[in-house]
Amino acid sequence: MELAVKLLVLEKLFDIYAQFVDTQDIFCAKHCAHCCTANVTLTTLEGWHMVAHLEKQNPENTRIPVFQNLHPDRFIPQISINRMADICARNGELPEETFSPDAGPCPVLEKDICPVYAARPFGCRAMASAEDCGKAGCATLDPFILTVNNVFLQTIEHIDATGGTGNLSDVVCFLNNPENRKNYENDRFDASGSRLVPNQPVFVLMIPPEHRDRITPIMEQIRAITI
After folding, report:
1. Euclidean distance between the first and final Cα of the chain, in Å?
2. Which of 114, 150, 154 is nearest to 29 (CA)?
């Protein structure tokens, strides 16, 4: 699948998810930035989508360097979500992941507003808390929303199976390298020297039995995507 087609599919997935979120009772709103931290992860496809948006906003890429403020405590995934699902399905042992709440805010955040909101990755869109995170201390997600989020995360990675996953800053820095961008665009992803991990196709979707019927309409929408 060509990169341009993958990007169109990604946007359609974002639209389907937005329709779903509109049916949910959530607290998240503009200026609510408690979940906007330096720990966000995304695929290279989402990174490309976001960088393209930044370049369209400002051809001189003045915002790109902001992502190079690599917080030492930022979350750096050891495996992708599809790899995690694969390991769990085979009763394997997952690698230990370290997550620090001290990573600070997202480097691109400006006065609690995201300047790339329209092109934000799914990890940001998935923050659909039923309560004020500032008061509760963490996001409160309905179990079904969590299942839906996992399905979208897995699907996005599946589309970007020849790419990688990493921290938002690491992915943007990776794609800011012309050689990396050229290789990725031509399906020659090389994560060596970066903090990214390779993606893989879906082996099994993480859908618990109690959510299978309820998620069927969303799955049908995803399968019906055409370009």
Report:
1. 11
2. 114
Which tokens go with 20? 């779903």
Tokens for 68? 């190079």
Sole residue written with tokens 């990169």: 3
Query: What are the pLDDT digits (tens) for 146-181?
Result: 999 999 999 999 999 999 999 999 999 899 888 999
Asked if 80 and 198 count as a contact pair (C-beta separation under 8 A), the reply is yes
Put simply, whether the predicted model's pTM sits higher than 0.70 gets the answer yes
